[in-house]
Design goal:
By secondary structure, this protein is mainly alpha-helical. About 45% of the residues lie in helices and about 5% in strands. Its main location: membrane.
Length: about 500
């Protein structure tokens, strides 16, 4: 299948792949005649999507492996030498403001937002050159969807952040303070509402992978659910807003669209030869062989010792910093759970012929489909699966929206039947979260689940008490719910930002 990625990820847009906010080349495009046709605007929108891939300044899924999965109780990675970013993040060290991963996540999201803002500015000034009002509105909806998508990450990870709705110069950016979380959410909600009202439900052919109205509703449901969570941190992403009914309405629209369905085979969801299947609501597109078009994120999970034997190129986590799947997660799977085989690599034979006790995620790895190097995996990365829609809807019911206990049990049992497990009854929030943990293991949702439901402190500290044999993990506090502002950002202009408490 032809993929949109060929266009998206080979286009390092207007020199903005650098890890800073020096986006001066973007400010020049309106004066040099770039936005003079519909094709130019299409290419510019493609450039916003490019932020999700390697050529966009990082690799969006790989960023989530470090900042979400490695932060959660799904991975135990204290590190022997303690020099890897994910080790410090896994250990809840308070000195992580200088880490490259913290800085890259800030820059990746803001660079993407600047790209989206440039498109929106130019649409306001030059939309007439497109020659089709509906197409211009479509471009606007895509740019707003992506701007909201990236701002949602910033709120979840950093709390209060600068609110920038138009292109600004580097000097102007130095005058913009952090905005209250509620103000950032106001823009996110407005952008997603515009997107869901002005995008199609689906695409075909090479257009697949673009934002749809149903993808906008899916992200909007996550936003409402996150806003509704208990307000543990005064500047965190949860506002105790009680918007579960609004989330349920978005999820019901997706379900009632009849565009999606659960697959019978769990492993088929992540097959390299079954991309774009009925389970996928929206995913990030990758393709092997193009310059910067492949993904790096599978490499973030596996051990380099395994790669030396089973892959045609080096890469993976070194022995002193392996992202080892926690015993706590593995022990949560009932005997006979079919998902285990498709989710984990538990041992392998190394290059000395010895069996290695390994515990890493290999949900996204197929050695027969390896590309040219560790940055060249072609598997699309799912942002939202239909099973997630069903389980989030069950969560809304448990939080008091329409629906019954039977509906909640039915959603969970559909997941369990596919996993080869017996059915259960009287599912509560705790049982739902445990099923989500198993179903989405390695999909970078666990930390968000814990924060959104207000269970993060209890769960993580209980995990540390039983799992941390190396005694390197620190007690998790409310302050750990969000990350520090990158030190590099604090140093650009003294006094512009205050560091988040606890760092």
């Amino acid at each position: 299948m032809q993929k949109i990625t060929i266009l998206l990820l080979t286009f390092c847009w207007f020199s903005s792949c650098e890890d800073d906010l020096n986006l001066t080349p973007i400010s020049e495009v309106g004066s040099n005649g770039f936005f003079s046709s519909a094709g130019d605007f299409q290419q510019a929108v493609n450039g916003v999507y490019a932020s999700l891939g390697v050529s966009g300044g990082g690799d969006y899924p790989a960023m989530y492996v470090i900042l979400d999965e490695s932060r959660s109780d799904n991975i135990y990675s204290p590190g022997d030498a303690g020099v890897r970013d994910w080790n410090a993040i896994n250990n809840f060290e308070p000195t992580i403001a200088t880490l490259g991963s913290i800085d890259r996540a800030w820059n990746l999201n803001f660079n993407a937002i600047m790209r989206a803002n440039t498109v929106l500015d130019q649409l306001a000034e030059n939309a007439g050159v497109i020659g089709d009002a509906d197409l211009a509105t479509h471009f606007e909806a895509e740019a707003k969807f992506l701007r909201a998508f990236f701002y949602f990450d910033l709120v979840k990870w950093y709390g209060r952040v600068p609110l920038i709705e138009t292109f600004v110069s580097p000097d102007e950016a130095l005058e913009i303070p952090r905005a209250p979380v509620e103000d950032v959410y106001a823009l996110i909600l407005s952008d997603l509402e515009f997107a869901m009202n002005n995008l199609p439900e689906s695409y075909s052919g090479s257009e697949r992978g673009r934002a749809t109205s149903l993808a906008a509703k899916a992200i909007l449901a996550r936003v409402y659910l996150t806003r509704s969570g208990p307000e543990l941190h005064p500047d965190g992403p949860c506002l105790a807003s009680g918007e579960y009914d609004l989330a349920a309405a978005m999820l019901d629209d997706i379900i009632n669209s009849n565009q999606f369905a659960m697959l019978d085979d769990y492993g088929a969801i992540f097959s390299y030869t079954n991309e774009g299947n009925s389970e996928i609501v929206w995913d990030v597109q990758f393709i092997s062989g193009g310059v910067g078009a492949g993904g790096y994120y599978p490499t973030e999970y596996y051990d380099e010792g395994w790669a030396r034997v089973y892959l045609p190129f080096p890469g993976g986590n070194p022995g002193d910093g392996a992202k080892r799947v926690s015993d706590d997660l593995l022990n949560s799977f009932p005997e006979g759970d079919l998902r285990v085989e498709h989710t984990f690599k538990l041992n392998y034979i190394n290059d000395n012929g010895e069996e290695v006790d390994a515990q890493f995620f290999d949900k996204y790895t197929d050695e027969d489909m390896a590309g040219g190097d560790r940055f060249d995996w072609s598997l699309n990365y799912p942002i939202m699966r239909y099973t997630d829609v069903l389980l989030l809807r069950a969560e809304c019911t448990l939080q008091g929206t329409s629906g019954s206990q039977a509906d909640v049990d039915a959603a969970v049992n559909a997941v369990r039947r596919r996993a080869g497990l017996e059915e259960v009854s009287d599912v509560d929030l705790g049982k739902l979260l445990e099923e989500r943990r198993r179903e989405f293991a390695g999909e970078n949702l666990r930390w968000d689940d814990l924060v959104r439901t207000g269970t993060v402190l209890e769960v993580m500290n209980a995990f540390i008490a039983t799992e941390d044999a190396n005694n390197k993990m620190q007690t998790v506090t409310v302050e750990d719910i969000i990350y520090p502002i990158p030190q590099q950002q604090l140093d650009v202009k003294q006094g512009l930002y205050e560091q988040n408490p606890g760092y």
